[in-house]
């Protein structure tokens, strides 16, 4: 299974993505991730969720091979809906979600991290939205939660990369640690939250979401509309194929 959950300590549920070789999730994988995070938040025994990954990097976005193999638009629509579901599950989770990021965090990974409550990262962590190079749009909504507006635009238009130390400077990454210390650092933050009265923390999550100035669900779906336009125009299919061909 590319997504699994465990409770290593009282009050803490760890959701792990493990989809070799690069944690690029299929349509089913995105929906499985959404379900895992949602179910964790609904469990009264869970006070906090840690979202992490195995392998070379945290997340490489959608499985482009799956989309290209579909002669119609079913896989594309499924990927868009699956991403929206997973991002929403993190944001709407009844308890705080801590993202523990290592290696690369690309595309859909930005959606997950941007909607998390706390982000910790290893020193080798890098973040990027290569969407424009794939003929797609999306997750500027979430990148805007990690960096200031003009930097977000520059990174988006150039498909540029930013590292964990830079995000720490902007305050969106809570801590940057050696790779070997990442899981323990995430668990350390989780323990602090799990020790609180979960009734208060769950109310706090609702309250913070309620005063959020960013309408994350609506703005992300708005972005996705332009992806559909680019696909109907034939732009996206060519861009995805160029990527798979190594051009």
Automatic annotation (TrEMBL):
Pfam family, one: ECH_1
Residues in coiled coil: none
Protein family according to the UniProt entry: Belongs to the enoyl-CoA hydratase/isomerase family.
UniProt organism field: Amycolatopsis xylanica
Protein name: Enoyl-CoA hydratase
Recorded GO MF terms: isomerase activity
């Amino acid at each position: 299974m590319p997504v699994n959950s465990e409770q290593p300590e009282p009050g803490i549920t760890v959701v792990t993505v493990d989809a070799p070789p690069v944690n690029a999730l299929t349509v089913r994988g995105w929906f499985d991730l959404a379900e895992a995070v949602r179910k964790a938040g609904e469990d009264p025994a869970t006070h906090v969720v840690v979202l992490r990954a195995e392998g070379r990097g945290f997340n490489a976005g959608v499985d482009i091979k799956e989309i290209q193999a579909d002669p119609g638009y079913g896989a594309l629509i499924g990927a868009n809906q699956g991403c929206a579901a997973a991002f929403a599950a993190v944001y709407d989770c009844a308890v705080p979600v801590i993202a523990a990021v290592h290696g690369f965090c690309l595309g859909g990974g930005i959606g997950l991290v941007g909607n998390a409550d706390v982000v910790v990262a290893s020193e080798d962590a890098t973040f990027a939205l290569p969407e424009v190079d794939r003929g797609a749009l999306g997750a500027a909504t979430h990148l805007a939660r990690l960096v200031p507006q003009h930097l977000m635009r520059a990174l988006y238009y150039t498909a540029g990369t930013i590292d964990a130390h830079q995000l720490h400077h902007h305050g969106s990454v809570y801590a940057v640690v050696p790779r070997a210390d990442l899981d323990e650092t995430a668990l350390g933050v989780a323990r602090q939250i799990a020790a609180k009265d979960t009734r208060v923390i769950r109310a706090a999550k609702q309250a913070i979401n309620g005063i959020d100035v960013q309408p994350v669900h609506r703005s992300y779906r708005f972005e996705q509309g332009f992806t559909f336009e680019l696909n109907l125009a034939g732009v996206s299919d060519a861009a995805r194929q160029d990527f798979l061909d190594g051009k």
